[in-house]
């Protein structure tokens, strides 16, 4: 018997299990894939910008050494309309705060550190690879049956099984969704000039072109992640260009800011979309992360929203457990939903609005956007608000996001 069964053992699901264990709440994770297969360098070339608040939570959960060893601090963000001079420069030192805006880490390295912690944690049981064959949610609790014949019983079921969550669909929870006519091309590049811990977001009518600072390669070459948004119809052709031609196209769009560049990882295309569940809870069921919401990557906040869900749910469940409450009681889930829905909705709407605004073609639209960026640059209070949002430090923060246990 576990307190919670988590369907989905990705970055969000494993972090939730560790967060619950830190509060003496037991959890079982069910993951369809073999988690070790996700650790290979070629499995997923993506990297994530970990907000400062998320980094504090990961530190509490024992991943601080991984972030210190593998992460690259983002100490400034520059946003421009194409390669025009000006734009907005977000530099924390301007506000008297030298802490980074975030930390860039390869996803596979975070997965490796999480998996090591999960396997060492006695309050977490990992079932992987394993498939769910049946789920029963009722007044007395939850029973999850696996293809191995194992039955898992708990008070609460958590869906952390991604954008196409089968758990959410089986519960009949509807989702508002749409697809952007764009794909994100993701790769890594080595470059001649140091990045100076600066992340650059260059906006073109086809979408944002993001250059994100990474740790140097083993041979000493400087390295950055590239997330290049292209029309969906062109994505396959861009990927097939090959490393030299793709590097040349990228160089045209970024100029000489990093000197000569060379791709050092395969390019992958990821379709971009938006979705948001009509509700986060059902009978003895809670949605977290991509099972509940998915946004445009324009601000790099998707994973951080999932980790904010984790921090809030862990605190709600820990407090309920201390009070001797049934973790599957509707009032417990309702508190979590109230805590998270507004933040998730506001960030989702803001990123959708920005994606659409910067996609408007034509010189007049570009000129208006450029003037808007210049206006933001001249308004320090607004810049400080944007920096606080990038750090994940806006609103009522759960204890884990403050670097504490609830």
Shape: globular
| Annotated CATH architecture | 3-Layer(bba) Sandwich
Provide the domain count: 1
Structural class: alpha+beta
What's the assembly state of these chains? single chain
Topology:
Elements: E1 4-7, H1 11-22, E2 27-30, E3 47-51, H2 52-70, E4 72-74, E5 76-81, E6 88-90, E7 102-106, H3 107-120, E8 124-127, E9 132-138, E10 141-146, E11 151-154, E12 156-159, H4 166-170, E13 175-191, E14 198-204, E15 207-214, E16 222-231, H5 235-239, H6 243-254, E17 261-263, E18 268-277, E19 281-282, E20 285-287, E21 293-294, H7 302-322, H8 330-357, H9 363-377, H10 380-391
Parallel strand pairs: 1-2, 1-12, 2-8, 5-14, 12-20
Antiparallel strand pairs: 3-7, 4-7, 5-6, 9-10, 10-11, 13-16, 13-17, 13-18, 14-15, 15-16, 18-21, 19-20
Description of the molecule:
The protein is of the alpha+beta class and 406 residues long. The protein has a single domain (4-177, 273-402), classed as FAD/NAD(P)-binding domain (3-Layer(bba) Sandwich), CATH 3.50.50. 35% of the residues lie in helices and 29% in strands. It has 10 helices and 21 strands. The strands form 4 sheets. Strands 5, 6, 13, 14, 15, 16, 17, 18 and 21 form a 9-stranded mixed sheet that branches. Strand 19 (281-282) and strand 20 form a beta hairpin. The longest helix has 28 residues, at 330-357. The radius of gyration is 21 Å and the shape is globular. The model has no long low-confidence stretch (mean pLDDT 92).
């Amino acid at each position: 018997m576990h307190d919670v069964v988590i369907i989905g053992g990705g970055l969000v699901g494993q972090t939730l299990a560790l967060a619950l264990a830190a509060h003496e709440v037991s959890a079982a994770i069910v993951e369809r894939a073999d988690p070790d297969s996700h650790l290979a360098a070629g499995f997923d070339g993506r990297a994530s910008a970990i907000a400062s608040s998320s980094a504090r939570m990961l530190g509490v959960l024992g991943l601080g050494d991984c972030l210190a060893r593998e992460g690259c601090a983002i100490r400034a963000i520059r946003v421009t309309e194409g390669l025009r001079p000006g734009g907005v420069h977000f530099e924390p030192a301007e506000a008297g705060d030298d802490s980074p805006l975030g930390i860039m880490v390869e996803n596979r390295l975070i997965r490796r550190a999480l998996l090591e912690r999960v396997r060492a944690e006695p309050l977490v049981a990992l079932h992987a690879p394993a498939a769910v064959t049946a789920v029963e949610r009722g007044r007395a609790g939850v029973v999850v049956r696996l293809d191995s014949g194992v039955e898992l019983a708990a008070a609460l079921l958590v869906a952390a099984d991604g954008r196409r969550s089968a758990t959410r669909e089986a519960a009949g929870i509807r989702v508002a969704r749409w697809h952007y006519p764009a794909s994100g091309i993701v790769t890594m590049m080595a470059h001649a000039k140091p990045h100076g811990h600066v992340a650059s977001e260059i906006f073109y009518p086809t979408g944002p072109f993001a250059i994100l600072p990474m740790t140097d390669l083993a041979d000493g070459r400087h390295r950055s992640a590239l997330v290049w948004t292209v029309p969906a119809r062109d994505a396959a052709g861009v990927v097939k260009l090959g490393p030299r031609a793709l590097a040349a196209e990228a160089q045209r769009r970024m100029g000489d800011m990093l000197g000569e560049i060379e791709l050092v990882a395969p390019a992958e295309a990821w379709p971009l979309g938006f979705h948001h569940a009509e509700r986060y809870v059902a009978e003895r069921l809670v949605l977290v992360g991509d099972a509940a919401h998915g946004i445009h990557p324009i601000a790099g906040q998707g994973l951080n929203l999932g980790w904010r869900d984790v921090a809030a749910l862990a605190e709600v469940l820990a407090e309920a457990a201390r009070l001797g409450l049934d973790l599957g009681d509707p009032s417990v889930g309702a508190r979590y939903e109230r805590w998270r829905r507004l933040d998730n909705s506001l960030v989702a709407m803001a990123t959708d609005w920005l994606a659409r605004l910067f996609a408007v073609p034509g010189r007049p639209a570009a000129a208006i956007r450029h003037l808007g960026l210049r206006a933001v640059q001249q308004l320090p209070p607004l810049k400080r608000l944007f920096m606080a949002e990038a750090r994940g430090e806006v609103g009522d923060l759960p204890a884990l996001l403050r670097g504490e246990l609830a």
